[in-house]
Amino acid sequence: MSNSTPEKSAKVCVVVGVGEGLGMALALRFAAGYKVALIARSPEVIGKTSGEIKSAGGVALPVQSDATIESEIAAAHERIHRELGPIEILIYNGGRRPMGRLMDTTPQVFEETWRLHTFGAFLWARQVVPEMLSRGGGAILITGATAGIRPWPTSAGFAPAKFAVRGLAEVMSRDLHPQGIHVAYVNVDGRCSGSSAPIQRTKTCSSRRRSPTRSGTWHIRIGARGVTSSTSDRSRKNSKPGVASQSYGA
Questions:
Q1: pLDDT tens-place string over residues 13-48
Q2: Domain 12-248 has CATH 3.40.50.720
Q3: What is the C-alpha separation between 125 and 17, in angstroms, rounded?
Q4: Quick check: 219 and 238 in contact, CB under 8 A?
Q5: Would 233 disulfide with which of 144, 187, 213, 241, CB 3.0-4.6 Å?
Q6: Whole-number Å distance between alpha carbons of 174 and 182
């Protein structure tokens, strides 16, 4: 696939979990070709990012919503559908990353981390999948981390949540891929640097500072029928964009 920016389309991409790092970078990148809804619990970053997208000629809708509360998700989905249209792509980017060993991690932190990374992805998927099934297409991309594959002893709360959402992605892919919905878990290892650059110069991501313009997240956004969904590894040991570390689906 070419790295060139596609023409603007009427299709809608929802980015859940828009913070100063990866979430913002993904929203800016996908705004180059989609109308983008930006979801977060606090209004500051989604407001700022929405302004950047609009100033660059894109379409953006900031929506303040808690990804762990079903009623708020339903309300956000209804607003997006009403103001932008049906959702073509859901990107779920859980952002909480507590560090601590077993005895440093409280039950509250453990549960809250699981709810944000896994339960929220489950709830949002259930919200968008019925419409995707009705039209026989769509994509769900879930951002992961190396802790969900090779955990450190200091990730007692974070790693189990990422293992769980990775398992959810595999379950959904095996279930939904035969019905035309592409599901992928994208393992991102590294940081995103902040910037106020326009859409064409989005923030850099990963330890090798690759832009989402060249990342697997952009290239695997839509899976064709007959092509398996996958886990795309963006870790330090697998730095080539779009390399699948594990395949799901048919």
A1: 999 999 999 999 999 999 999 999 999 999 999 999
A2: yes
A3: 14
A4: no
A5: 187
A6: 10
Cα–Cα distances (Å) from 181 to 176, 200, 207, 223, in that order, read 5, 28, 30, 8
* Segments making up each domain of the chain, as ranges: 12-248
Query: For the chain, what is the largest distance between any 2 Cα atoms, rounded to a whole number of angstroms?
Result: 51
Residue 68 to residue 153: CA distance in whole angstroms: 26
- Identify whether the C-beta of residue 89 lies closer than 8 Å to the C-beta of residue 222: yes
Give the sign of the dihedral formed by CA 158, CA 159, CA 163, CA 166: positive
**Residues across the chain:** 250
Q: Which two tokens stand for residue 103?
A: 């005895």
d(Cα 135, Cα 115) in Å, to the nearest integer? Answer: 29
With vertex at residue 126, the alpha carbon angle to CA 47 and CA 89, rounded to the nearest 5 degrees, is: 50
Class of residue 246 by CB neighbours under 10 A (exposed 0-12, middle 13-18, buried 19+): middle
Instruction: Judge whether 214 and 240 are in contact, CB under 8 Å.
Output: no
Structure confidence by residue, pLDDT tens digits, 92-122: 998 788 999 999 999 999 999 999 999 999 9
Q: How far is CA 86 from CA 81, 223, 237, in A?
A: 5, 18, 37
- DSSP 3-state assignment of 102? helix
Look at the block and give the residue holding tokens 């809250």.
112
State yes or no: pLDDT of 242 exceeds 80: no
